[in-house]
Amino acid sequence: MSLEQDVAAARGAIEALERACAPLTRHFGDTVDARRLRQDVGRLRDDLTLLCGAPVHGAYEPFAAAVYGDGDDEGLGGSGRTRR
After folding, report:
1. Rounded Cα–Cα distance for residues 70 and 60 (Å)
2. How far apart are CA 68 and CA 11, in angstroms?
3. DSSP 3-state assignment of 11?
4. What stretch of H or E contains 83?
5. Which of 12, 29, 70, 72 is the most exposed place for a label (fewest CB within 10 A)?
6. What pLDDT digit, counting tens, does each position of 13-36 carry?
């Protein structure tokens, strides 16, 4: 298998583990052990991302639009402001 296939298989296994653990954590509620199980699965996902990089989802970046907006810097000379 290629690296990309191995990474995709590992990501799929982590997602399957998360789906398998979700009903268990609902049965036990917000206990220390249930939280730890959720965190461990999240840590697996984070470690794989650190090792292999984030999964590629395409060019769309919803976060970038929220951060950068329309690019208007409204500093001291921003629109509608005058100096006194």
Report:
1. 16
2. 30
3. helix
4. none
5. 70
6. 999 999 999 999 889 988 999 999
pLDDT greater than 50 at residue 59: no
∠ CA 57-36-34 to the nearest 5 degrees? 100
Report yes or no: 72 and 79 within 8 Å, Cβ to Cβ.
yes
The count of other CB atoms within 10 Å of the CB of residue 41 is 19
The DSSP-derived string for 25-69 is HHHH-S-HHHHHHHHHHHHHHHHHHHHH-PPP--S--HHHHHHHT
Q: Are 54 and 46 in contact (CB under 8 A)?
A: no
Distance CA 54, CA 73 (A): 30
* Paired tokens of 78: 């921003």
